[in-house]
Input
Amino acid sequence: MVGEVKAWQARPLDPVYPIVYLDCIHVKVRGGAVRVKAVYLAIGVPKKEMLGLWLAQTEGTHSGCRW
Output
């Protein structure tokens, strides 16, 4: 599983995406206690290709997420 994730992260991307959607979803993560984490998504159009995922403690401008 880790190998598949590393391969996905290292895959080649198109040089240009005319439109990029950036959004955040909240997911519940279990680790002793259930916590809510923010997952940022970047989706490139026209292929509707997921460009990346970033995990943060909360949603906001100071989340530490680096695009």
